[in-house]
Amino acid sequence: AQTVTQSQPEMSVQEAETVTLSCTYDTSESDYYLFWYKQPPSRQMILVIRQEAYKQQNATENRFSVNFQKAAKSFSLKISDSQLGDAAMYFCAYRSPLSGNTPLVFGKGTRLSVIA
Amino acid sequence: NAGVTQTPKFQVLKTGQSMTLQCAQDMNHEYMSWYRQDPGMGLRLIHYSVGAGITDQGEVPNGYNVSRSTTEDFPLRLLSAAPSQTSVYFCASSYIPGGGRDNEQFFGPGTRLTVL
What is the DSSP string of chain B? Predict the structure, then answer.
C-alpha cells in the first residue's frame, strides 16, 4: 500500500519570502498522480497543484511550484512571495492511475503560518 | 454547477444515536468517497464507490454504512454513534482515472460531527 509522509507538522514564513514544504511517498507503481491540497480555516479542501509521474517537467501554478524527484520519491511544494492568505494546512496526496479503487492517500499535513 | 454539496455542516449526537450525512454531486462523476479528518491524522478513507450500486470499504469503515443508488448521491450512515466518531467528514468525487480524463477529486465543505 502506498504511504505519504510529511515530516514538517508546522512551518512558518515571513510575508513575501519563499517556503518549501516537504513530502515523500512510498510506492511500487511507475505511474501515478501527486497533489498538494490547501485547507484554510474555512476547512474547504482546495487543489493547489498536481503532477503526473510520467511528466518529467515540474508543475507550476503562479506562485506555487513543485520539485518532483521520482527516483527519490519526493514531491516538495515551493511557495514564492508568500502572502497572508497562504496560511493554511497543506496536504500532500498520492493517487494511483488504476481504475477501480483509486482513493487519495494523504499525508498528515503541514500547518503553514505566514508572519506579517 | 454546485459541485459537491454536503449536509448538515454541523451536527451534535448523543452516543447510540444514528444519523445520515448527505452528499451529492452534479458533475456526473463515477467515483465518490467519504473521508474523516482527525487532528494530526490527515484524511482517512471510510468508504468509496466507483458507480451506482457499487461500494467498498476504505481504511476505517467500522461503524459506517454507505449506499449508492444514483450517480449523484452517496450518503454515509452512522449506525450507533460513538465518541470516537467525533470528527470532520468530507465527501469527494471525481472521474475514475484513465482515458485522459481529469482525475482531480473535488471535495464538499465538510461536516463537523460531535458525539457526546
Answer: ---EEEE-SEEEE-TT--EEEEEEESS--SEEEEEEEETTTEEEEEEEEEETTEEEE-SS-TTEEE--SSSSB--EEESS--GGG-EEEEEEEEPPS-TT---PPEE---EEEEE-
